[in-house]
């Protein structure tokens, strides 16, 4: 038993010396290629075995011939180990190089393409993560391009819609100054109408800026959905009568919701005004509200004739307006963007779909 312990001790001491030397070498070469590191690891393993074997052999006073045989066997093992380490290092280095090239194209604004072949499990996991990140960045770039397009359109439309009333205001003001206005009262009333319309546009811009900046402060309270929709219908009734549109709201469930009453009234008001202006005379705008598995759903259905399928994803974008809506009093195309912002601030969602003869805007809110 004592001899076995001595052999184990001598072997451990010899291997420990080789391991310490190998660790120092690895530290010095830590910035070199992976092939060098793997070769050092293989060399350290063989050197540790050789050091332990030689230490035990000298302690046991083996003959020179036996020592030569042991050394030769260990040398052959070292050679095979080094060759295996180099081949493995070259394979891993090649896979790393392919992954680096794919990542470089990804970083230059392209999309990440998975390298060919079957990489090691760790590299394959890294490639999958990079592919997922690439997909997310592609989606973000697409949203950024769409947002930038919406901003440019918004600036162009706002400039147009502000320039037109400003030109009219200046012309009417000059006519009043020069005493050329035959009916000054009519001019003053028209000036007031234009100022109110411009004030509404500026107010929409301010509201949208608060929503996009995340500074919209909500004061939620438990409200009956029936009362909320009823107030919105009452507020939109004069506009509906002016346009000859019939408002229908007889499918409203008695469902409680916890929302900011002022902001949700604006949501319903914007949806109703938009629906009334797009519905031809003698048409119908119907409002419905019910509880579903996903929450409380409020829908506004109009008779606009439908929205082109390619435009449906853009309906709630900032500044978007249909091709027939680019003249006053259509506004600046902010109403539906404000609707989406307020609803999302309530942890809800907005949707639009075409129905027979028109389209249906729906708002889904969490249940109280």
Automatic annotation (TrEMBL):
Annotated TM spans: 6-26, 38-61, 67-88
Molecular function, one GO term: phosphorelay sensor kinase activity
Domain Histidine kinase stretches: 157-368
Record's GO cellular component terms: plasma membrane
EC annotation from Swiss-Prot or TrEMBL: 2.7.13.3
Catalytic activity from the UniProt record: ATP + protein L-histidine = ADP + protein N-phospho-L-histidine
Subcellular location: Cell membrane
Keyword terms, alphabetized: Cell membrane, Kinase, Membrane, Phosphoprotein, Transferase, Transmembrane, Transmembrane helix, Two-component regulatory system, Virulence
SMART domains: HATPase_c, HisKA
Pfam families tied to this protein: HATPase_c, HisKA
Top-level EC class as recorded in UniProt: transferase
Topology of this chain in the membrane: Multi-pass membrane protein
PANTHER family: SENSOR PROTEIN CREC
Protein name: histidine kinase
């Amino acid at each position: 038993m004592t001899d076995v312990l001595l052999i184990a001790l001598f072997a451990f001491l010899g291997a420990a010396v080789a391991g310490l030397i190998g660790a120092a070498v690895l530290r010095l070469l830590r910035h070199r290629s992976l092939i060098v590191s793997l070769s050092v690891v293989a060399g350290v393993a063989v050197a540790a075995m050789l050091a332990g074997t030689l230490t035990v052999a000298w302690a046991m006073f083996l003959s020179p011939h036996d020592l030569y045989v042991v050394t030769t066997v260990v040398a052959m093992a070292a050679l095979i180990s080094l060759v295996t380490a180099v081949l493995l290092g070259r394979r891993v280095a090649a896979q790393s190089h392919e992954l680096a090239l794919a990542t470089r194209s990804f970083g230059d604004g392209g999309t990440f393409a998975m390298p060919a072949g079957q990489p090691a499990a760790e590299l394959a996991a890294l490639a999958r993560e990079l592919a997922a990140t690439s997909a997310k960045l592609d989606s973000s770039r697409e949203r950024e391009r769409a947002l930038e397009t919406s901003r440019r359109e918004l600036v162009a439309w706002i400039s147009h819609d502000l320039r037109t009333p400003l030109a009219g205001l200046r012309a009417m003001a000059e006519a009043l100054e020069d005493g050329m206005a035959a009916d000054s009262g009519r001019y003053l009333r028209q000036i007031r109408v234009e100022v109110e319309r411009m004030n509404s546009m500026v107010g929409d811009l301010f509201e949208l800026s608060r929503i996009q900046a995340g500074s919209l402060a909500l004061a939620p309270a438990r409200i009956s959905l029936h009362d909320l929709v009823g107030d919105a219908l009452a507020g939109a009734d004069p506009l509906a009568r002016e346009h000859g549109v019939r408002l229908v709201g007889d499918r409203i469930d008695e469902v409680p919701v916890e929302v900011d009453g002022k902001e949700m009234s604006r949501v319903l008001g914007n949806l109703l005004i938009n629906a009334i202006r797009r519905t031809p005379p003698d048409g119908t705008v119907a409002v419905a509200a019910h509880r579903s598995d996903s929450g409380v759903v409020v829908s506004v259905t109009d008779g606009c004739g439908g929205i082109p399928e390619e435009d449906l994803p853009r309906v709630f974008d900032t500044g978007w307006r249909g091709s027939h809506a680019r003249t006053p009093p259509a506004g600046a195309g902010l109403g539906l963007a404000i609707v989406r912002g307020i609803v999302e601030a309530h942890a809800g969602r907005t949707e639009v779909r075409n129905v027979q003869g028109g389209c249906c805007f729906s708002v889904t809110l969490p249940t109280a």
